[in-house]
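We append the chain.
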Amino acid sequence: MSFKKFIIPNIIAVLILTTLNFAGIDPVLKSDNDDTVNLNKYRKAQQLIIANYFKPADIDKMYKRSIKYMVKALEDSTLKLANSPIDTTFSTISSLEDASDSFAHFQEAYLYVANNRPEANMTKITEAAIRGMFSVLDPHSIYIEPKDNELEQERFAGKFQGIGVSFNIIQDTITVITAIAGGPSDQLGIRSGDRIIEIDDSSSVGFENEQVMDKLRGEKGTTVDVTIKRPHISEPLRFTITRDDIPLYTVDSSYMLDDSTGYVKISRFAATTHDEFMQAMEELDGMGMTQLVLDLRGNPGGYLSQAVAISEEFFPRGTELVSTKSRHSRFDGEYYSRRDGAFKDEPVIVLVNEGAASASEIVSGAIQDHDRGLIVGKRTFGKGLVQQQYELIDKSSVRVTISRYYTPSGRLIQKPFTEGNENYAYEIYRREDDAMTDAVEFVEDLPDSLKFKTDAGRTVYGGGGIVPDYIIPDDTTQSAYVINYALRQRIAFEFVRDYLDENGEKFRSNWENDFQHFRTNFKWNGKQLSTIKDSLINAGMVVTDTVDTPKFKADSLFIPHGHFEEVSWMIEGRAKAELARQIWESSHFYPVINDVFDNTLDKAMKLWDAVARLKEISENHSTADVGNLRDIDGQ
């Protein structure tokens, strides 16, 4: 960009403002309206796209879409559009050549709106324009508002600063679900079931989630006073809590499935994920683990570096893990394991589904392409793009796709995104209900150019996620109407809260020191099940002779006589898992919920012989082995 092209639009803006001043019109670039910030933010966002996007950006389309979004954001529809600076068909706009032309036109449009609608919220309008600019890119390139940006940074940094409780708002009152182990609240004895009724001597009844976080979060070392009402304690309890760093764990759960099989569930890939994973694996090793189930279902991804670090643990030194390619050479890269992984010889099964994306697919792709273990479950999401996040002037951010990534066999697993962001996001819900049918139809429609070979010669596929080696459809043999209705109405959560209000001390004395005993032997009694059923009926469930199968009507569920008794095990299991969460933290929720519901995990545990066969074929592969490989693939 020449100096002339950069400076002329800014000189024009100054001349416009000077003219407005002489005409007796107030200038629009007032500091209290943040106009300078808004214009600089728009320009910076545009520059970041042009400088970093993984393919050439269409400046003309970006500009025109930003103006369309800007117009949509105007609450007043009477503003003149035709032949004005916000008319994208205006003759002078038809020949945009570069970023400086585009920005000059946006600046004119901005000034036109600000002058003619002085009451307009120009910050919101600018944000709409930036979103419009990003809407012509891929679905993963986005604008992030300042308030959301802080939460995003905390989520991926793996910690935040606060008092260390997870909470829910029940009947307008903040209810503690768990105090995070080792955190400041836990150290003071705050526990599940406590109601926070005052914060800093002001009532907190009626607070929304955002208000709670604003009051309880804060810089490490600062204090906050809370008043707590505890069941069966007549007087309120008052605590002064010193805020501290609170870890946000990404390894949701790790435990032994049997005497030799470890299980690790990773919910996302943040800055601390590899460290958490290694700690979990060390503990499982101490319990006798010799093989691993790695659960990446529902994991949307995160940091590329963490996906590489996790993958590295399963391979010998020098193994290719993933590569990235962009129109900018600075974003090209090939990632190899830099050392022998700690678990390079340990048999592994990776569980995936349509919610596993990005970094989850990098790990799954490396393990599949090198025949290192079995990928089991359902076809993954299909995100093969890498983003970089950049901060803007007002602490907002943009996330720009800088490259594509490829699995070791050369696969780009990115699914198409030409039909718009909404269709892209909801594509997973339009897949065939049966996971096997979905995979078969997906593979049948693929051109040969999207078929690749693993190290041992197995066929794998690109263009739409990772197709597992073993497809395991969802279990549809049981009706989920009642359990889904119970979840929507928060029946299990509120039942457990009330149960602990009445029986918390007795329960803790009997079970708290032996989770495994609880997991194996705890059962709800008949009276408690009747209470759950009554809660469902009070919430709108109707037991009737007029239906043969459950049916929803408005916000009610109609079920036939006897149906609740057939499916009550689901409600019992969910309530037991919720009880484990409120007593032992979220990590103990998953062993119980998996015991009750996880059909995929049950079937995966029967595949260890197939893992051993895959290892043998991988070590001795030749063209004669293809028949055996097909047996493993289930094809």
In short: Confidence is low (pLDDT under 50) at residues 1-32, 622-635. DSSP finds 22 helices and 24 strands in the chain. The first strand starts at residue 142 and ends at 144. The radius of gyration is 28 Å.
